[in-house]
Amino acid sequence: MTMVSGRAASATDLKWAVSGLEVETPSWGYGNSGTRFKVFPQPGVPRDPFEKTEDAATVGHYTGVAKAIALHIPWDRVDDFSALAAFARERGVKIGGINSNTFQDEDYKLGSLCHPSFEVRKKAVTHILDCCEIARQTGSSVVKVWLADGTNYPGQDDFRARRRRLIDSLREIHPALPEGARLFLEYKFYEPAFYHTDVQDWGQSLSVCRQVGERAQVCVDTGHHAMGANIEQIVAILLQEGRLGGFDLNDKKYGDDDLMVGSIDPYQLFRICHELVKANADESDRTARSCASEVVYMLDQCHNIEPKMPAVIRSVMNLQEAFAKALLVDLPALRQAQESGDVLDANGLLKDAYDTDVRGLLARARAEAGLPEDPYRAYLASGEQRQREETRVGGVGAGWQ
Ligand code: AFD
Ligand code: MN
Fold this sequence. Notes:
The chain is of the alpha/beta class. Helices cover 44% and strands 12% of the residues. The longest helix has 21 residues, at 118-138. The protein is globular and about 65 Å long.
């Protein structure tokens, strides 16, 4: 039995994980995906952004918390983005972050915003300015920049020249953000560049964001770190700096595997959620508290061999479980144990919360909110998967094009 401030934990303690948390699901998580070796197409996948939005709405219906779909441009380009946003709203979904794509055009072979050629940099800046305009039309509050930019060989280009180009390019984009919107700069340890990546870690992203402007923040993709990186420590520092914009959530065993969040290392996911819950409750650190309250939680996963919809629903539930456990940490007792140097008690308080099986409490909280107690099983029992596979016949399943 987990005690929270001297009493047994209840569904109320973790209610936020069922009716406060907001999760964005990625449009590309519903389409066909794979690795450089093979894409295994699946029956029933959406064929356009409208059908992707329908899938996102279904996930929102079953989970109650995933009521936004993140778009990827040009994969999700439509003639009228305002119409797509209206279509989404009619189904209880909003358009989330607009993810730019400066990594698939032939011109971007040697980079985009960091490219040696002014013309190529201009093309990339124009694309991201277009993403800012799309965000304005959809009412999105995030424009996301992830750069594949880097080099494959020592001597190929100059590190400082590339960073200068990046900062100058982003300084052109920052003023074009819609009112109230933010620019997320996402880092990645390596791949597709193999010698260096221009925005490789949290420090590089943070230092560039600081030079670009107040609305530039860091996006932490949980699969984008060197082995053994302490991600929860990175999260705590970015919160303290007021520059944690959001997460691209997934899990990994070795690389940028884009596996279901919480499926490989749920204890790490819990420790990350604990930093967010702690910051949200920290009266002594207004910057971290304010930053934590505006963090965007987006799944950035690819379901290459498993059926897409159940995988997305399962992922949302994994995140809810991690947050539910984090909400059970007895923070006053933890702070007291930390301040008194009681190592084992402090660790025990965290581990007790993590070891709590919260599935029953979550089921109760969902029932009280009028939601299926087990969204994953409810979806499987609904027959919706078969219906998708029977009705979505013909056309071309969406993918990375
Ligand atoms: C790829 C990149 C990165 C980015 C995502 C969407 O590694 O995670 O956020 O595509 O553009 O997964
Ligand atoms: Mn990502």
